[in-house]
Protein: PAZ domain-containing protein
Amino acid sequence: MDAVVIYFFFTNKKERKMNRGGYGGPRPFQPRAQNFAPRFSNNPPRQPQQPVGPAGKVVAFDQCREGKITPVSDNQQLLVNSYDLERPGRGVFQYELKFIADYGRVDQPLEDLSEIPTRHVLASNRRLCLTRLYELLFHQHGAYFEANKFNKNGMYEHVYVYDRAIKFYCSLDMQDRDEQNPFIIDINSMTPDLFDHRRNPKKVFATLKQTQKLEPDTTNGAEMATYLEALFCQHQLDGPERFVKFGSKMFDLKSKSDITGGCELKDGHHKSVRIAENVAELQIDAKISPFHQGLPFLHYLHARFGLGPHDDFCSQSVIGKLAHLKGLFVRTIHKTNNEVFRIRGITSIPADRLTFEDRNGTITSVATYFETIYKMKLEFPHFPCVIKKSGPKEMHYPFEVLEVHQGQKFPKDDMNNMQEQNMIKAAQRLPGTMIEEIENQKKLASINDGDQYVYAAQVRIKPGMKTVKAEVLNAPLITYKNAVPKQVDYAVWDLRDVEFVKPVEINALAIFYNNVQRNTAL
Structure:
């Protein structure tokens, strides 16, 4: 057995960051003859750099706790984006509320509508469906839920909180209703697009199962926080046509700020509840996010790509641009029951030459089919079609019968420099403006003591933001290479060749490993 010495060479951190794989160099370790001497680099030595001076007093690492930091100001009153809460004054029962669709077909089993799809557009559509079913449940079975009971102030007598998935909270202690004794819901007022199908289910029923009771003084802070977060979303969940939910974020579709290229910014917020023993607080952060503009499809193509009636949409250059549309959700506008679907691609053949076999076995073009079936003479029959896939089958839709579906996030990777610059400018808010926007988001969500849901839950919210005592510290020293400051380009600050602190250099590191045979290749 022979001992092997493996050497690793490091330069300073600034050079290493150019190779993010963590590998020291492009060549593997190569031992020289039998002495296993390390092969050193033939690169000339680097010129020594001037050390960067510290921004303040230097404190030894093992004395950091004893080191004193002298603030610029030690008595600064600071507003923080949170509001004090009083815990609910009454307990609630937690239930599993499920809506089940029965299509009455052997090949299509029961569908649990409470299972939310992962894609945001489909999830938003499902929440809209669940909201309508929830409203019908209370309208048709209101006596069971005592939904028409109000107190002397005209407020709800009971707590009703539904997260538009499976969790339902109510102050009533109700018996379970399983599939043997469900709530049957009349869905004649609903349309198939809400169920993401071509036709309505044969019937929809709801089941209810009690899971636990949450007392005001419960020690389960996580469950209480989940309940309160759902409570503070109720007002906006009741209006799914205006508000769209992304995780714990909520955005207002009525707000819009055009940043060109088929993209617009929408205002929203992120909120969370923090529970600690007998105290609680609600934190609200104002947010902005880029969304696709909900335009007619042809208008969207002009806004995003600058394409118009005189462009050759079937040319390779235009087809290459339109490839970025894959995954975008669009909505039909020519049917009695319109549908939302995801673009799978764009045809390279125009609608007046793209043919298929109709139900009668006749070969016809897409343009002729729409003129025959929908009495629509296409204005641009020489444009290609959008491809929709349903299983192995493909369906084709002309551009002019589609619109971009509302409420879709615009991928930041698809944004150009101008869009990024406009978004960053919009996000740069002065403190006073930020406070106003947080208050506006709180008002839009109806988070106040006078809200029906909040009042019934007996939750009290302080009207103003919390104030804390803060210290203002010295700003860190930023040193530029060769004393040349970096310029901001398209609202991006280039951090290359910028040193915040002088990194430590490790000239060599040796690892001894003696469990290797002499002739073993490393």
User: Anything to note?
Assistant: Residues 1-69+481-522 form one domain. The radius of gyration is 31 Å.
